[in-house]
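FORM 7B - TANDEM STRUCTURE REPORT

SECTION 1: FIRST PROTEIN
SEQUENCE AND TOKENS:
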Amino acid sequence: MSTLVVSLSALPDAGASVDCTLEEGALRPQGEPELGVTAVRVQGVLEPIGGEYLFRGALTGAYGSVCDRCLAPMASAFRIEAYWVFQHSASSELLDVWGEDDDEADERDEDGPRLGYVAGGEIDLAPLVWEELVLGYPAKFICREDCAGLCMACGANLNETECGCQETQDSGSPSGGRGLAKLAEMFPDLKPKVEE
């Protein structure tokens, strides 16, 4: 299937393969902040099991950001294993934005499957795709393990150049003030506003 909305009337007893690629904008709920995700590929199998529906598969793509050490643009590739169970719900009013009622969301084992619900004879995989992307978002972005970061004095990217500031500081001529001014030039939107 090339869509994340699956009609149960068209779902074979043996299940159906899902394989589609979507941009972040097609997945992000209204009002949610952007994650900077490149196109996400969703692959797996949705199958009926004992009155419920099980999706097993994986999400692949990359988070686009900047390195937390050197501020260089980078992409952090991901592969997230997906294991979701969809159930019939008596009332859609009980469901929150992720497709779970509050009680079941609180009781769900974090290591167990994520829960979704059947609505109007269809299963929409998109809310759980988005939830996995949010939960999988890295706490830090590092372009490489040995990233040297920025010089605290002049702001130079130490992965690309040896600025010599450390030698100057070691000889007794601190240049920290210059470094802060250089960083302020690089990020003018972050300058504090002074009231007149």
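SECTION 2: SECOND PROTEIN
SEQUENCE AND TOKENS:
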Amino acid sequence: MIIGTQFTMPLSICVAAFVVAGFAPETQPAPVPAIKPGLAVPPDGWAYLPELAVFGPADIFRVAPAARGDRGPKKQMLVQTRKNVGILTRDVDLPLTAATTLRWRWKVDQIPSTLPETAAAQHDYFSIAVKFENGRDLTYMWSSSLAEGVGFDCPLPGWTGREYHVVVRSGTRNVGQWLAESRNVAADYAKYVDAKSPGRIVQVWFIANTIIQQGEGKASFGDIVIAPGPKGKPFTVF
């Protein structure tokens, strides 16, 4: 998601630029910039999408066991974002057939946007996505207000025609509860993207974005499986 958002440069960065230009007084040490470029350290087996490095090292995702009394998965991907954005990726190599199903559980505690996410200025959200060998990805999201079953092309420059969204849950009724989902990936691709199906799934993504409206969001994921996988057996993603 290359996001066309303008930011006000912090004073410390302005000062740092002044120093680099060679105009700082000799008695003052060069200040450290407030924002560092790059990516955060991802959980084992995962990687942050390099395209988003321009926004700095947003440390959004971490793996943790279920808390005492939590009825969710034993191992969970905890997602917390505040005024930042990150996409966590895992490489896979799985055939896409008419029977391919993505299953997962999630608990959204705070939805990133209170406005319809179809507009670029409001496109903050949580989702789980599958990327295909043709470079496209299909992402399943929890919307604040769009109806379940709505599908739309990503409104962000650089992602239109590349990323397609499907609303799986809507509103706040089930916020804070663990819910199980199951989607036929090939059927969804044919319905929302293109009748011509790609041959393989090459990555699975977690997406968390609050950089546009500068808000917050919190969610957890787990029990992520693609079936059938190799030799017809379910493939455990996480």
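SECTION 3: OBSERVATIONS ON SECOND PROTEIN
Confidence is low (pLDDT under 50) at residues 4-36.
The chain has two helices and 13 strands.

SECTION 4: SIGNATURE
Preparer initials: ____
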